[in-house]
């Protein structure tokens, strides 16, 4: 495999491997292979991970002062910055659940959704203590 990358720019290969590591659509096995390849190339992935996390926190801080951000989003940003929200990338199951519940919350506010669907969404949100 290394013969395939000898004629390619190493920084571009590393960038592609880093993108694969952070892509939620890439399998864990492929992410591990990409991480191993980066280590073989001498790249430091921990730095980029920390840098990414710091940039995320900076975005949450900016959201608190942005007048175009909803109150709900500002509350979420505050929870993240206080450390009460789970921001680890290892909790993909939690992330999925949060997105599903967010979809149900959006259902409650969508005028194109039937009352029956809104009632179901409210029931699911109550079951998950998300109201």
Automatic annotation (TrEMBL):
Biased composition, class Basic and acidic residues, residue ranges: 44-54, 71-81, 115-131
Q: Which domain of life is it from?
A: Eukaryota
Lineage, opening ranks: Eukaryota, Fungi, Dikarya, Basidiomycota, Agaricomycotina
Q: Signal sequence: where? A: none
Look up the record and report any one GO term of the cellular component aspect. cytoplasm
Q: Where are the annotated coiled coils located?
A: none
One Pfam family matching this protein: Con-6
The scientific name of the source species is Crucibulum laeve
Q: What's this protein's name?
A: Conidiation protein 6-domain-containing protein
Write out the ranges of the annotated region (Disordered): 1-131
